[in-house]
Write a structure and sequence with these properties.
Elements: E1 6-11, H1 17-28, E2 31-34, H2 35-48, E3 52-53, E4 56-57, H3 59-65, E5 71-75, E6 82-86, E7 89-90, H4 98-108, H5 111-124, E8 130-134, H6 137-141, E9 147-152, H7 155-168, H8 175-191, E10 204-207, H9 213-231
Parallel strand pairs: 1-8, 1-9, 2-8, 9-10
Antiparallel strand pairs: 3-4, 5-6, 6-7
Helix pairs in contact: 1-9, 2-4, 2-5, 4-8, 7-8
Bound molecules: 2'-deoxycytidine-5'-monophosphate.
Amino acid sequence: MSDKITIAIDGYSSCGKSTLARELAKILHYVFIDSGAMYRGVTLFALRSGCIANRELNRGKLISKLGSIELKFVLNPETKSPELLLNGENVEYAIRTPEISSFVSDVAAIKEVRTKLVAEQQLMGKNGGIVMDGRDIGSVVFPSAELKLFITAEIDTRVERRFQELIFRGTPTTKEEVRENLLRRDHIDSTRTESPLTQTDDAIVIDNTHLSKIEQLQLANKYVERAISALA
Ligand code: DC
């Protein structure tokens, strides 16, 4: 029997969920899936195919085109991280812009988009040995995950981290813009009707405001070891 578990990591935007999920997957030799990248991929498709025009999202038009969106992850041989392909094109960089961030929560609130992506995510995780991060992973995608982590950090810390990330990538922005986008996404993500961000009762909360990346990884790894030994 495989002792590979399913690990669900949820939390607000820019809490460091993906960083933790990626590093955990590396040390455990699990598959890592950043489910937010998939919502970003659909948003990029929406922008490119005229489903977002004059800063307005045309939900009906996007829903009618969902069948022509193919999302796949490929492993970057250098970074050993999965990167998103949208209809065969590597869009890992293109999905991380402030423009995508400003529309993604509206796209992610569409029921039909979620139904499609949740089904694909469940398929990716059907054999266990996966670390997936997002907003509804512990509540909807993998409700029976052996380990559920809910990551939080203070808003100032999240703004600073996201701002530094964008500046590092050469994307011009201000801390005010970053704060406004994070708060807006938090609000939409946690108040939408379709599987809003929720902390499930069986999730372990990690507040990483005062933790280094390595401290957070060590803490999470302790919970993994505990969850695996509980299987025996
Ligand atoms: O994790 P992220 O910031 O890249 O996610 C982008 C958006 O996608 C976020 O605003 C909420 C949405 N999302 C979601 O609704 N459900 C998920 N499982 C993952 C992301």
